[in-house]
Amino acid sequence: MSLPRMRTMQGTIDMLREIDPDTKITYHRLREWILNGTVPHVLVGTKRLINVDKLIHMLESGHPMQPEQPDLDYPRNRIRRIG
Known about the structure:
By secondary structure, the chain is α+β, with helices and mostly antiparallel strands.
């Protein structure tokens, strides 16, 4: 089992720019994809974490990802705050 590369929106943009310095994907476009469900994310507190490997696969294939189904055992689909 490999650990997915989860990044914030800005971290994702920075990683895409490392891979392709001339990328035309902007922070605002990524945010739009997240809000309309094209790119799945995990909400951790107020931050949205994106699986960069899945995003790269989506960009390579040219097809948007299907929104992931929420975990029915934990319907909020968030990491619980402790303390």
